[in-house]
């Protein structure tokens, strides 16, 4: 009896599908099962395809491709429908894809059997159980698994996600991920095992007769449906797996960019037959797992590199300096490597003072970080030579200009981005007297926080950013910190991150600076939290561009003197003849000093008198003006005293200007608006001053402010 007759007797037909010609060959039984005349026939695929339910036909392609990849038998259940789309029977197909003899084309011949199976017919094909409740749940599972693995940011998180996956119908109770180190197998991580269970598998030679090692060697998956099969195929390492109490195992290769990077083991406490559908799910999860582990490994390597660069480039504040307290923060947020051009430094100077440096090299890439490192070293060298702040920045600008001019655009950037500049603030601080001589190269001004918590932007003279000109000048401004006062230096990232400009960014930071803090470390943390903390998205600025920027913060506090005198606040600045615009800065300084003054009209009066006094010096003398403003006393009973000194011995006198006169009203205004005023001659020059009292009782205020 022929084979076809034997198969027909048990209701099994033979068929083959040639993908190159698109024809289907059926024997008599296979033709009958498909609703065709019971005789051998060769039909075009377009005629045979409508005999199967569309949903089943769409999935058969994936089953076949999986069988080709795994070099296994393609097995599936398919519904045969009539011309009206009604299911007439269900058949099981088992087929083996064999490569076709068609050069230059990826084709195959699918040869196998068709056999009818018992399945209750349904009147409407689309409502039968085979429409794929299981398949739909499988697709939903794969979508959820892919999303969760894609969002995992570390190897530990990938393993946690993989361990929590609930596969439709056959969830593993434990998993292990193996990697490769040289010619040895390593354990990347595991889930569902006790600590220490991985010890026998650590540093296992790839030649070991172990399923994961064989998977790495061959790149082919291994499915073990029973302990007997495991013991038969891998007798040498069966004792290692026996004590875990599992019944089935799947070992699948982890492939990334065409290379097998490891293996994934899924263990089951129940018997799993590993049908084609189940193998397809496991294979898909293994591919997603390999991609997720590759991404997580790259991210962790990147973070490790970033931390190494940060530690190498960011200085330690070192031992404390007598008389002052210092804190600093660096937060890289702008670049892919999480490194950028921002930096800070604290330098011990030969004269016993210290230098505070903060700066920002243009860009957020590796080149910006490299230039930053070179510039920081150059600044330390110039400072160690004993140069004053203006000379240090002038030399640094020449140094950076030489670096960028020597850059070859062929090394990786076009010419438009080859030239880089840097902003920088350099301050030479004397801990004994509290004086800071500040030179600024296009950098944000410092902020001074008085003992009572008032924060004020201290405007200082400045020059061009470093690297713009080879012979740039950088004027120096002296700031004096009283006992207990704090100065804060920062890069523009602290101010402008989150869509802010300088004005709105300062408004966001001011409450943080004025909030009482236990120490400078708490203040530094609070500043960073205001920009990058959980609530920072509530304080975004008005600008559309809300990209993040690197942040560097450096704060210094002069130790407070032990006194019961109420804390005061003060500000001092020089108004040069060549910089009349500094008069506006003086008005702003006074307004910031009086931000919580009880009478708003007095604040306006103080601004007006400061403007008149400063302008008078610039117009009627040949020298610069020195302004000193101080608020003393307790709140509600405070006194404001403002002095403007110059080197001229000519004393001002009151005049009675006509209605059209453009000057002559200064002392008249002071007499009208000030609670007290005067002119004090000095050894060289004079001082014009006025006072305003927050209380209506000048005598009481005089005692409080004395």
Low-confidence stretches: 120-133, 412-417, 658-663, 699-706
Structural class: alpha+beta
| Overall body shape | elongated
Strand arrangement within the widest β-sheet reads: 3-2-1-6-5-4
Task: For the record, give the distance between the C-alpha atoms at the N and C termini, rounded to a whole number.
Answer: 125 Å
Mean pLDDT: 81
Task: Annotate the secondary structure layout.
Elements: H1 3-9, E1 12-18, E2 23-26, H2 28-33, E3 41-44, H3 45-48, H4 54-70, E4 74-81, E5 87-99, E6 108-117, H5 133-151, H6 155-163, E7 174-181, E8 184-191, E9 204-205, H7 211-218, E10 222-224, H8 227-233, H9 238-242, E11 248-256, E12 259-268, H10 276-313, E13 324-331, E14 342-348, E15 354-361, H11 366-384, H12 389-405, E16 422-430, E17 435-441, E18 447-449, E19 455-457, E20 476-480, E21 486-490, H13 492-496, H14 502-514, H15 520-532, E22 551-558, E23 569-575, H16 582-593, H17 600-620, E24 625-632, E25 639-646, H18 666-673, E26 676-681, E27 686-693, H19 698-705
Antiparallel strand pairs: 1-2, 1-6, 2-3, 4-5, 5-6, 7-8, 7-12, 8-9, 10-11, 11-12, 13-22, 14-15, 15-16, 16-17, 17-20, 18-19, 18-21, 21-22, 23-24, 24-25, 25-27, 26-27
Structure in words:
It is a single chain. The protein is α+β, with helices and mostly antiparallel strands. Helix content is 33%, strand content 26%. It contains 19 helices and 27 strands. The strands form five sheets. A six-stranded antiparallel beta sheet has the order 3-2-1-6-5-4. Strands 9-8-7-12-11-10 form a six-stranded antiparallel beta sheet, with helices on both faces. Strand 1 (12-18) and strand 2 form a beta hairpin. Helix 11 (366-384) packs antiparallel against helix 12. Residues 120-133, 412-417, 658-663 and 699-706 have low confidence and may be disordered.
